[in-house]
Structure formats: structure tokens, C-alpha cells
Amino acid sequence: MSLTIHDLRKRSSSYLPGSAACPGCGATIAFRIASRVLGPNTVYVIPACCSSIIQSPYPRSAFSAPVLNFAFAAAAAAASGVYRAYKFQGRDVNVVVWAGDGGTVDIGIQALSGAAERGEDIIYICYDNEAYMNTGIQRSGATPKGAVTKTTPTGKREMPKDMPMIVAAHGVPYVATASVGYPFDLANKLEKAKKIRGFKYIHILSPCPPGWDFPVEKTAELGKLAVDTYFWPLYEIENGKLRITIKPRKRPVKDFLTVQGRFSSLKEEDIEELEKRIMEKWNSLLQLESMERIF
Amino acid sequence: MAEGEWNIITGNHAAALAAKLARVNVVAAYPITPQTTVVEYLASFIESGYMNAEYIRVESEHSAMAAVIGAAAAGARTFTATSSQGLVYMSEVLHWAAGSRAPVGMAVINRALGPPWNIHVDHQDSMSQRDTGWMQIYVSSNQEVLDTIIMMYKVAEHPDVMLPFMVCLDAFVLSHTFMPVNVPRQEDVDEFLPPFRPAWILDPSDPIIYGSLVLPDEEYQEMRWSMDLSMKRALDVMEDVAEEFHEKFGRYHGAAIMKYRMSDAEYVILTSATLASEAEVAVDMMRDEGISVGLLKLRSFRPFPHRDIKESLQGRKGVVVIDRSISFSSGGPIGTEVKSSLYDVSGAPPIVNYISGLGGRDLTYNDVIAMFKDAVSRIASGRVRKPYYWYKLKPEYQRIELAEEVII
Amino acid sequence: MRFEVPIVIPVSKPRKGSSGETGLWRVERPIINESKCIKCWLCWLYCPEEVISEGENGFPVIDLSYCKGCGVCADVCPAKAIEMVREYG
Fold first, then answer.
1. Nearest Cα to B272, choosing from B337, B223, B207?
2. Is the pTM higher than 0.90?
3. Which residue of A238, B118, B398, C46 could cross-link B112, Cys pair, CB 3.0 to 4.6 Å?
4. Nearest to B59 by CA among B27, B102, B91, B30
5. What's the CATH number where B13 sits?
6. Residue C80: exposed, middle, or buried by beta-carbon count in 10 A (0-12, 13-18, 19+)?
């Protein structure tokens, strides 16, 4: 029941060429695939993030679906309102939040948590470029440890928040991680989420060439490397049951780190420590996978 | 004329009933004293089936406002309620509602701001949000709460207006006080208030993108100008709607202002909310003493009724404005704006602005009389020396307030 | 006297080339070698700008008015059928 390239080619996305996105932008790859799967019967609520600007300035838009651009902290709350209005009217429309990591794990976390707890029937998609990229590369709660940003010039000292698990702890019916490097995995997860009633959360790793400092053509490759090094495990939690959806043969995390300038300040021992943490996380995911329910 | 049903209810209950009668589709609210019973009534109306609406039990006031804007964007008529900290917490999104031209309805139970905590009547909360683009109507009775909310949906949803509104009622004095209220029948309100027709809508069959980046040489300034123009137009719409309501329901509370015994008055007391009711009593008492005084009750602070103010106050011997909030170092919001309204009007009267009643400091008709007499004596002896005077401070502080050295 | 009240709102409409002819941003342009192309359509799938479509002869074709020259298509092509060639000099 997996989507194939032919299935995807038959559908149109809500993205029009000629946007304001940087060349090689991971977020636009994610949006193209997501909007293709979600279809035209979809309304997007977009808080302040790169996608606010990618849409291009008024009066023209690179997005061809209805979009409510909204204040930074409140996308999930606004989406709750949109959904409830349609519910009152008896209309069946996909209501989707399309937010960056800042508007999700930091300033937007309260509204997200509230919407998740209330079980609003929306899909919350976080495309994660691991920093406040729209404002010029400042660290966020999703920035990995050791990454250089404009506010962490010698490398971030803290581990990032595990947002998918935080959302899963709310007891919602569906949570998944995804990556632009595994587009079919992403497409299948969205196709599944679309059919579930309740609050769904998808967290997509979206590499950012200027923010992560890597050659612009390697966006998709890095999205795949992140998964293949176990830096970004791909899993889904459906009704509390965890399943790892892609189990690649592991590559050393160094392969992922050395392509990116943002990790250039990492020393040998930092990389070793990271490798250790990654394996610990992977092993705990394997253990969780063996349990009937984790949340 | 439509008959309603008499009930003895609190201001909060009246606000909840108004939302139900206005056939609001989506409610999103977060509790805060003394607004809590509004949201509790709404929850019980909806759960019992008495009211047909979606109720979003949001996790904060900021999210409450965000949710109703989202709902309005999808074409719903919406309602929320808050007070004090809740109102100022949602300040960012208040601006967003007005800029979205979403005619959201809100009951604000006026309560003092902290720190320190104070749950009593004070207008600082709504006054501090006067630049958000929201219409603000201050009311003096529970009947007025109910009638005004219904009327303001008609004003706000007028195609020339399309701006959100707050109906402001005093904490505890109205919110928790029982008064007789004639509650209209649903059919009569349905005839009076047509369904909501939004200025724009999120609809997959006709995609639009709202609120993208607007560069300086595109129409950002024009969008703000349009909001200002609509707010001014609302004054006319308010008058028409008040007339219509009067004809249908037999009740008239005024439009932007309500005049009481003003036709031959030499002096005017100008104030709002429940203090205006006290001032009515004060006017009657002073008239019995032979003093030529009237009351101008300011209902609409936004839109500010420049024309009404000018026409009503020109040529008077003196005006006493009483504010229940302070714009620090500048004066009372109402006093300051009334003065600016009369600035280049010939025959502009002397105006004395008092600040009092903050944090629920009790003000009765006796206080109104005291302020009035103080003002008249100052005007007569040329002693209006400060832009505004605080009144009814504790004696050791009032002494400092009145000392000549504290003149700005 | 009643005046006319326009409601001026920030409503944008979908439009291709919303940020102009973004092909002008390019430093390198992709050239597809049809003899190597296996029509897997991965280039189309990954293209961040959605400028790849099916040409008349059934091979992928790139809309150079909007292609930003990022090179992701060349990087993901399993047949190495896309070459990035410098635009100027």
C-alpha cells in the first residue's frame, strides 16, 4: 500500500516555481511532497518561519492552496479555530499547520501542546532546519549539540528537545519523524496521517544549505545521510505503538557531520560522544519497538 | 415591538446569553477572574444543547484569540471573553484580529492590572489596548451588556466596518451583580442580526493567501488607513443600528454617547461605564440644588466620537472628565482625547480631568459630586493648574498630589 | 454625507514566478543527457523548485525560467545523467 513514484506523479503539489526560497532549500522539497499527498482540499496555517517568506511578497504567492499566515506563537491555536469552524459547518477539509522548528519547539510549544491535548483533528507538520533560519541562523531548541549558529558561535552546548516524543507523550493517535532524504517514507506517513482522526504530528528533517553550511546540491543527500548515520531515526508511533520505519545499515556519523560547516568546531571526542549517544538512542528505540505501547 | 422575557441575572450571564442569541459558531476562551462565569455559562449552554456552537477550551488567552481569528478566517461568527492579564497577554493577537479584519466579538470584564494582584474594577486593561484597532464600548447595566453585544455584531460585520469589538463591563459591579434584564427571543434576534458574510475566507475551492509579506511600496499603509476609515464609518453604522434596535426591541442606550439632562446644562460631567450611572444620580442631586449640570456618558471610546464630543461640549462653562485608568504622566485616556477633540474649536470649555477608582477604589455619586465641585471651584478661581488630578488617594498621598510643587 | 469605504486587505493570489524570473539567480545550469537518463523521475521528485516536468519526448525537461541551479537533481540522479554547467564563462 506504499506510494510509488507514479502515484506521486499523478498528483499536483501546492507549490509554484519561482518562489523566494534559497536554491536547494530542504523546506520546499518537504512542502512539495507534503502538499502533493495532502491534496487540494487542504488549508495551511503558517506561523512566522522561512515559509512565510518563501511564499513571496504580496500580491503574488508561490503557494497555491489557501494559507493563513499567522503570529509566531499561535499556529496550532489558529488551526484549532479553523478546524472547529469547518466542523461547525459540516465541511471536511484538511487543516494543516506548516511550521518551522522555532514556531514548534520553542515559542509555539504551548499552542501545540494545547491542541494536542484537546485532540484537535489537524495535522501538525514541523519542517525542521534546526535553527531560526528565517531570522538569519540563530539557535533554537531543536538545534543539535555542537552546531554553530549566530547565537552559539562556539557551538551549542545543549542537546535538542525530543519534540516527537514530547508530542507522543500527549497520547495523540499518530506521531512520525521523516526526512527529505527519504521522500517515499514521508509520503506514506502523510498518506496514513490524512486518514486518521485526531491530532497528528509529523517532524521532517529539512537540511538548509546556508544555515548548515554545505554545498547547495547536497540537500537531499544530507537528508538521507542523517537517517543512514542514525542521527535522525525514522519512526512512527501509532496509537502508542512505536515502529522504526527505515532501518539502514549504519554509517559513521562523521560522514554526516563533515559535510557541514556548522559542525566544524567539533573535536574527535565530541564526535565519539555523539556516536555513543546516537547508538544509545537507537538501541532504546529498538527496545521501545518491542513494547506493545509506549504512550 | 418584540417582547422578551424578564430575568434577574448577572452581567456575565447576560454576556453569555448575548453570544448564544447572536448565534455564535465558535467560542474559545480561557478563564480569569472575574470573567470565569461567562465561559462556564457558555460551556453549560453548549453541553446541554441550548446553544449550538464549537467550544475550544484553549490553554491560554493568546491562544483563545488566535483560535477565534482562525475560526473567523474559515467563515465563523466568534466570541471570547477575558479580563486584565488575559487581555494584555493576548495583546499581540488583538492587533492580529483587527489587521485580519475579523469581526470577533469579545466581552472584557474590566479589571486592574498587576503587579500586584487586584481583581477589582479598573479600566487600565482595555484602555491600554486602545491602539489595537478594536472597537471598545463601555456599558453601565446588564441589560446594556446583552443589547450592546448583539448590536455590535451587526456593526462589526457591516461590510464597511469588518473590525473586531470589545464590550467592556466593570468587574463585579456588573459581572457579578444581579439586575433585571429583558432577554429577547431568539426569533427576534435572528430577524435583527443576519448571518455573517466575511470580507475574505479560507476556501480550498478558491485559494487565497492571507497576510504575506507586504513591502513598503505596496499597500501596507493603505491597509492601516482602511482600518482607520472603517473605524470612523462605524460611528455612523452604530447610530443606524441603535435606531433599528430601538424600533425592534424598544430599548435605546445611545450610540457612541448617551446624553443625560444636557440640553441646558452649563457644566458637563463626562465619564463612562458604571461610574456614569453614579454620575446620573449625582446630576439629579445637584440639579435639585439648582446647579446647571448634565452628563455625557461616553459609550464608544473606539471609535472616538470627535464630532459628538465637539457638538456636545462646545460653549459649555466647564467639563469634568473622570477616568478610571491612567496613561502615566500624560493623563486619563478619555480626558486627553476629549481635550484634543476640542483643541481648535472656538468656544471650547475649560476641562478638568480626574483619575480615580483604580484597583476597585470605590466611587459613588458622592465622589462624583466632590470631583465636580472641586473642578467648578478651580475653574472659577483660575486654579486648573495640572493636566490631570488624582482623586480619593489616601490622605497622606492626596496631600502630595495637591501640593503646588507636583505641578508638571 | 457618506463616503466610500474600501476594505484593503493583504490577500495574495497564487502565481508562478512570484519572486520573478528566478532562473536569473543561477550560476550553473543543469543539462540532461537523454542517452543516460533512465526516466526514474527522481530528479522531478527532489527538485526543490518543481521545475522538472515531462517533455514531449517523454524525458524530463527543466523550466530554465525558474530553475535556480541548485544541482540537487544532478546529485540525486542514479544514472549520473545530469551535468551542472557554468552559466557564464
1. B337
2. yes
3. B118
4. B30
5. 3.40.50.970
6. exposed
Please spell the DSSP secondary structure of C4-69, one letter per residue.
P------EEEE-TTTTS-GGGG-SEEEEE-TTT-----HHHHH-TT--EEE-TTSSEEE-TTT---
How close B92 comes to chain C (CA, Å)?
18
CA atoms within 13 A on the CB side of B398: 8
β-sheet bridge partners, residue B179? B9
Beta strands in B227-349 (DSSP E): 257-260, 267-271, 293-298, 300-302, 318-323
Residue C13 lies in a domain: no
Is C52 part of any domain? yes
Residue B303's identity, in one-letter code, is P
Which of C9, C12, C47, C66 to mutate: most A Cβ within 10 Å? Answer: C12
Could you tell me if B221 and B353 lie in one domain? no
Rounded to an integer, what distance in angstroms lies between the CA atom of residue B342 and that of residue B358? 26
Of residues B64, B78, B202, nearest to A68 (C-beta)? B202
How many Å apart are CA A295 and CA B107, to the nearest integer? 40
d(CA A135, CA B357): 45
Residues B361 and B302 in one domain: yes
| C69 occurs within a structural domain | yes
Residues of B in Cβ contact (< 8 Å) with A83: 70
Closest CA to B149 of B137, B162, B163: B137
- Nearest CA among A86, A199, A76 for reference residue B67: A76
Helix, strand, coil share of chain B (percent; to 5): 40, 20, 40
Question: What residue numbers bound the domain in which C71 lies?
Answer: 22-86
pLDDT number for residue A270: 96
**What mean pLDDT do residues A200-226 have?**
98
Q: Give the number of residues written for chain B.
A: 408
Contact yes or no for A57 and B66 at CB 8 A = no
Per-residue pLDDT of chain B (408 residues; tens, 9 = 90+): 788 999 999 999 999 999 999 999 999 999 999 999 999 999 999 999 999 999 999 999 999 999 999 999 999 999 999 999 999 999 999 999 999 999 999 999 999 999 999 999 999 999 999 999 999 999 999 999 999 999 999 999 999 999 999 999 999 999 999 999 999 999 999 999 999 999 999 999 999 999 999 999 999 999 999 999 999 999 999 999 999 999 999 999 999 999 999 999 999 999 999 999 999 999 999 999 999 999 999 999 999 999 999 999 999 999 999 999 999 999 999 999 999 999 989 989 999 999 999 999 999 999 999 999 999 999 999 999 899 999 999 999 999 999 866 665
Q: In this structure, are B43 and B93 located in the same domain? A: yes
In the block, cell 509529523 appears at A202
With beta carbons less than 8 A apart as the criterion, state whether A234 and A185 touch. Answer: yes
* Residue in B28, B204, B214 closest to A43 by CB: B204
First to last CA, chain C: 67
> Grid coordinates in use for B104?
470577533
What residues make up the domain containing B348?
A: 257-406
Tell me if ipTM is over 0.90: yes
What DSSP string runs through A195-247? T--S-EEEEEE---HHHHT--GGGHHHHHHHHHHTTSS--EEEETTEEEES--
Same domain, B233 and B136: yes
Check whether residue B56 and residue B148 sit in a common domain: yes
A187: distance to nearest CA of chain C, Å? 11
Q: Which of A46, A88, A110, A199 to mutate to test the interface with B (most CBs of B within 10 A)?
A: A88
**Cα–chain center distance at C75:** 15
